[in-house]
Amino acid sequence: MAAGQRAPEIVYPESDGQPMAENTRQLEVIVYLYDNLRALFADREDVFVAADLLWYPVEGHPEIRTAPEVFVAFGRPKGHRGSYKQWEEDNIAPQVVFEILSPGNRYRPLLEKFRFYERYGVEEYYQYDPDFGILEGWIRRNGTLEPIEEMQDWVSPRLGTRFTLEKGELVLYRPDGERFIPYVELRQRMEQAERRAQEAEQRAQRLAQRLRELGIEPEEG
Description:
Number of domains: 2
Oligomer: single chain
Strand content: 15-25%
Number of strands: 11
Radius of gyration: 23 Å
């Protein structure tokens, strides 16, 4: 490079051009994990949960990247990111990664992802195939990702969640024993809570109006 010339800026794309999911079944599982993990760690400002976010582990090498379906990074603050550049995150790699398989998955790309996660510091790696009801996991021991022999009722050291397969469906349980809630049910609960709040507000307004009609000014509060 000639004297006085600036080095070209390195671009780290925020999209790999691939869809988050290939079908609705895969997407449902991704959303199920993402929403419930965010809820699980809602009170912790040092836990970042992401879905389909590009992870760059090495500065200066935008070609070294992958986008896990879901990952959890402990020790990193919540907040929006266009990508996860590890050198900007105190060099903390996501500790827990999930991949949800679809019919389009092939052996070689899956093997490359596994090697990526093993090389760049993932502590727990979970892989679920919703079409065949197969759940597999690996945990880091002695610098490598070793298979978890029995995933049924396995408890994640990092998440504290218990993994189960129930009629072939992946179900996780929180440390307090409550199961992760499917998105539809979670939405229904939120809507019910909103309706109850609205009904309570309407009852309070009717009561206040009745008190005024009786010449009593309701207390503010």
